[in-house]
Design a protein that fits this description.
Strand content of chain B: 15-25%
Structural class of chain A: alpha/beta
CATH architecture of one domain in chain B: 2-Layer Sandwich
Radius of gyration of chain A: 24 Å
CATH class of the largest domain in chain A: Alpha Beta
CATH superfamily of one domain in chain B: Chloramphenicol acetyltransferase-like domain
Keywords (chain A): Cytoplasm, Disulfide bond, FAD, Flavoprotein, NAD, Nucleotide-binding, Oxidoreductase, Redox-active center
Distance between the termini of chain B: 62 Å
Radius of gyration of chain B: 27 Å
Helix content of chain B: 25-40%
Structural class of chain B: alpha+beta
Largest interface: A-B, 11 and 12 residues
CATH class of one domain in chain B: Alpha Beta
Number of strands of chain B: 19
GO molecular function, one term (chain A): dihydrolipoyl dehydrogenase (NADH) activity
CATH superfamily of the largest domain in chain A: FAD/NAD(P)-binding domain
CATH architecture of the largest domain in chain A: 3-Layer(bba) Sandwich
Helix content of chain A: 25-40%
Shape of chain B: globular
Strand content of chain A: 25-35%
Largest sheet of chain B: 7 strands, mixed
Organism (chain A): Acetobacter cibinongensis
Shape of chain A: globular
Largest sheet of chain A: 7 strands, mixed
Oligomer: heterodimer
InterPro entries (chain A): Class-I_Pyr_Nuc-Dis_Oxidored, FAD/NAD-bd_sf, FAD/NAD-binding_dom, FAD/NAD-linked_Rdtase_dimer_sf, Lipoamide_DH, Pyr_nuc-diS_OxRdtase, Pyr_nucl-diS_OxRdtase_dimer, Pyr_OxRdtase_I_AS
Protein name (chain A): Dihydrolipoyl dehydrogenase
């Protein structure tokens, strides 16, 4: 008989849940994980990781079509689309089995099934009803239950995934063949990444956004540069757009898009709906508890505690930003708080966001506009990658680094980057922001030459003494 | 085996102190009983003695460091030939390093500018430091909430909010004189004086009553008494005017005991003993050693005791119980020739007597003009404890004791 009573029971094995379990095990707590589908959650299986594998392929395809720039010549470049998708799946599988191995090594039992809060049992312990396929329901008990059930794609009426014309991210990750014409609805991180992938693989892509700009959460200047770059790559981009109903034909789909005072009739082979996500709050037994749900997300305090003592919620199900690294960080914080350690609540303005479209976008903290709204008097520094030696050498001159400082205190309020490898570099600014460095320390930091990261230094200088190379 | 020297608790209420001075250097051989360092609390300086013998391996808290919590390791004592642990946390036996490590030239890789280790190291983020300097907040008073207690910006903001002047009372920061200036950090004592006196003056309703007292009879008695002192030997004494006024105040307090009291929200505390705090100026401040049960002591006892207290006060060697407590205070500025002044009450006491200089003045006696030595004394009184008539009664009693001083010797 396997163990059924724990200090902590985690429902959901994604980047929130499995990290919570690993940290709990490190701290010597007994912990179990309930996972309905696959360890690693959306991130490893249907999100962050497989998309990066696909985007790597599309980046290679882009370079193969730009060989002449570097002095190469190759005839009849082609690809096997099934193999590209297969590689993406293999990467996910490898990582997910890695998570299973880590949990096994930490002696954390994983229950394959659905967990549901089921009241309080003896000694005030939380009961969790476990429903497993092909077996009777059983009850697990724990002093603390962490809900880490994640989120799923929001489905708008008329845009329900139909397995044929309309895709959510799931179908978009495992296409049988490359659609010739593709409509992507929504230009957040998910939408732009798919738009980038398919465009760089050769599809005709139309990107539609209801907000006035693509990547609406990013700094306006960054959004503008992204749109310009997408259009240069041959994407059609409509912002402030109004979408008419889809009319599905035998082999394709027609839709009207109103934008810029004009109505466009667009016919495509496939439609990707990337219009946000909703939290997985159903069938968790929240009904008879003090836990409150606000717009599909569980309401928690700064330490991830719900309205019900002993029940916590972390990651996507607990609200924005919907990022794996936020989930993992909350996981560690939540478990450490349970273990009685001193923890520090997360400041959302210190969580970086990365989008892996081409060119990449990465940011942390306040945009220039939001800093001004918040009442800061700002100093802004900008440095274009065209002036950076390494970017030029790599043939990746498209991009900009922008810093936003509080003019009064020198606090780095935010940093916004677009261009090659910026997702790998943003952590520099995140460290600065988390460690509360000011312009003085950043100015005195020696950045290595030649790197694209020198632009990060220059963007700081630009806000104060002036950039040296622009 | 390395042992830690901990910040001692010099009084039951002490929670932190400052390391005023190290009397031994790293590498010095220590015998049990050697004075290692001087610790400054809010008013006294005390010595830390070595309990064990050994070698002072490492000084962990540099002199001048303030706000060191009681029981914090301040130094590490090692045995001869023992490796010195880096810090208190690794004070457990350390792996013996090959000798080469010890003889390695230490400063070789250190630029000169970095040779002096920073004192009072405060762990704070650069942003917290900058905001603190902009808001003029002393970071040593801020509790850090960041990793390992590091002070972060929100701690400074919180401290600023807590200590900020009440809204509406905010005054624009007075500009500093455009000439040169230097910043002198507050000593612990200066901070305590500032805090206690500001609190007293702003929360205790003071009122002041003055009276002129003729001193001639008291001066004559003093000469007579001093003439009886043996020329030499341990029994010699020399009474000062102040000694006699301390005794006079004590006798007056016995006669009007309602002045020998303290106000609390719920009740009045009436003291049985008359313990007189005598304000003594010392470099960088003042301290009030206490002549306990002054009403019961002879002038000679008061004199000898006061001399000893003042001497030790100036050397910073008073024990806390020798300056904390007291039921009434005397501040005497007669030696500076002042005409009159009023003093701030030393809470929780109810009154303080300010004594000015005795001056020869023409006075009317009967219908004649005569010359008398007159001093003006001013009683500052907490009106919550003592009303005007009682204050006047007390002063009148004090005057009659001074002017007919025989009661000082009975």
């Amino acid at each position: 008989m396997s163990k059924t009573d724990f200090d902590i029971l985690v429902i959901g094995g994604g980047p929130g849940g499995y990290v919570a379990a690993l940290r709990a095990a490190q701290l010597g707590l007994s912990v179990g994980v309930v996972e309905a589908q696959h360890l690693g959650g959306i991130c490893l299986n249907w999100g962050c990781i497989p998309t990066k594998a696909l985007l790597r392929a599309s980046e290679i395809n882009h370079l193969l079509h730009d060989l002449d720039t570097y002095g190469f010549k190759a005839d009849a470049v082609s690809f096997d689309f099934t193999k590209i998708v297969g590689r993406s799946r293999a990467v996910s599988k490898q990582l997910a089995s890695g998570v299973a191995h880590l949990l096994k090594k930490a002696k954390v039992p994983v229950f394959n099934g659905y967990g549901k809060l089921d009241g309080i049992g003896p000694e005030g312990k939380r009961k969790v009803k476990l429903s497993q396929k092909d077996s009777a329901e059983t009850t697990l008990t724990a002093r603390h239950v962490i809900l880490a059930t994640g989120a799923r794609a929001r489905v708008l009426p008329g845009l329900e995934p139909d397995g044929k014309f309309v895709w959510s991210y799931r179908e978009a990750l495992v296409p049988d063949e490359l659609p010739k014409r593709l409509l992507v609805i929504g230009s957040g991180a998910i939408g732009t990444e798919f738009a980038s992938f398919y465009r760089n693989m050769g599809s005709d892509v139309t990107l539609v956004e209801v907000a006035p700009r693509v990547l609406p959460v990013e700094d306006e200047e960054i959004s503008a540069l992204a749109q310009k770059s997408f259009e240069k790559q041959g994407m059609k981009v409509f912002t402030s757009a109004k979408l008419g109903p889809l009319s599905k034909n035998a082999t394709d789909v027609t839709v009207t898009v109103e934008a810029g005072g004009k109505t466009h009739n667009i016919t495509v082979d496939r439609v990707i709906s990337a219009v946000g996500i909703v939290g997985n709050v159903e069938n968790l037994g929240l009904e008879n508890t003090k836990i409150t749900v606000d717009r599909t997300h569980i309401v928690t305090d700064a330490l991830c505690r719900t309205g019900e003592a002993g029940v916590y919620a972390i990651g996507d199900v607990a609200g924005a930003p919907w990022l794996a690294h936020k989930a993992s960080h909350e996981a560690v914080m939540c478990v450490e708080a349970i273990a009685g350690k001193t923890v520090h609540p997360i400041d959302a303005t210190k969580i970086p966001g990365c989008t892996y479209c081409r060119p990449q976008v990465a940011s942390v903290g306040y945009t220039e506009a939001r800093a001004k709204e918040a009442g800061y008097k700002v100093r802004v520094g900008k440095f274009p990658l065209i002036a950076n030696g390494k970017a030029l050498a790599m043939g990746e001159t498209e991009g900009l680094v922008k810093t936003v400082f509080d003019a009064q205190t020198g606090e780095l309020l935010g940093a916004h980057m677009i261009g090659a490898e910026v997702t790998e570099m943003i952590q520099g600014y995140v460290i600065a922001r988390s460690g509360e460095l000011t312009e003085a320390e950043l100015t005195e930091t020696i950045f290595p030459h030649p790197t694209i990261s020198e632009s990060m230094h220059e963007a700081v200088l630009a806000a104060y003494s002036g950039a040296l190379h622009f | 085996m390395a042992t830690e020297v901990l910040m001692p608790a010099l009084s039951p209420t002490m929670t932190e102190g400052a390391v005023a001075r190290w009397l031994k250097k790293e590498g010095d051989t220590i015998s049990a009983g050697d004075v290692l360092a001087e610790i400054e609390t809010d008013k006294a300086t005390m010595e830390v003695e070595a309990v064990e013998e050994g070698i002072l391996g490492r000084i962990l808290v540099q002199e001048g460091t303030q706000g060191v919590s009681v029981n914090t390791p301040i130094a590490i004592l090692v045995e001869e030939g023992e490796a010195v642990p880096e810090s208190a946390s690794t004070a457990a036996p350390v792996k013996k390093e090959p000798e080469a490590a010890a003889s390695e030239p230490k400063a070789a890789s250190q630029p000169l500018a970095a040779a002096t280790p920073p004192k009072n190291r405060v762990f704070a983020s650069p942003l917290a430091k900058r905001v603190a300097s902009q808001k003029n907040i002393d970071l040593t008073t801020v509790k850090g909430s960041g990793p390992n207690g590091r002070i972060v910006r929100k701690d400074v903001d919180a401290a600023a909010q807590k200590g900020a002047p009440v809204k509406g009372q905010e005054t624009p920061e007075a500009p500093l004189s455009s000439g040169g200036h230097k910043i002198v950090p507050h000593s612990t004592m200066r901070k305590v004086i500032a805090k206690r006196l500001a609190e007293s003056k702003s929360t205790v309703p003071h009122f002041y009553v003055s009276v002129d007292v003729e001193l001639d009879a008291l001066l004559a008695l003093r000469s007579q008494l001093n003439a009886t002192s043996p020329a030499e030997g341990p029994d010699t004494f020399k009474l000062s005017v102040n000694d006699m006024l301390v005794k006079a105040a004590a006798v007056a307090l016995k006669r009007i005991p309602s002045v020998n009291a303290s106000f609390t929200d719920d009740a009045m505390i009436m003291y049985d003993d008359v313990d007189i705090s005598v304000a003594v100026s010392i470099p960088d401040g003042l301290i009030t050693p206490i002549v306990k049960q002054a009403d019961k002591k002879s002038l000679k006892q008061i004199s000898q005791e006061t001399k000893d207290l003042v001497k030790r006060a100036r050397a910073g060697k008073l024990k806390p119980e020798e300056f904390q407590g007291g039921t009434f205070s005397i501040s005497n500025m007669g030696m500076y020739g002042v005409k009159d002044f009023s003093a701030i009450i030393n809470p929780p006491q109810a009154a303080i007597l300010a004594i000015a200089a005795g001056r020869k003045l023409p006075v009317v006696k009967g219908s004649e003009i005569a010359i008398a030595t007159v001093m003006t004394v001013t009683l500052s009184v907490d009106h919550r404890v003592v009303d005007g008539s009682t204050a006047a009664e007390w002063l009148s009693a004090f005057r009659s004791i001074v002017e007919s001083p025989l009661s000082l010797v009975i």
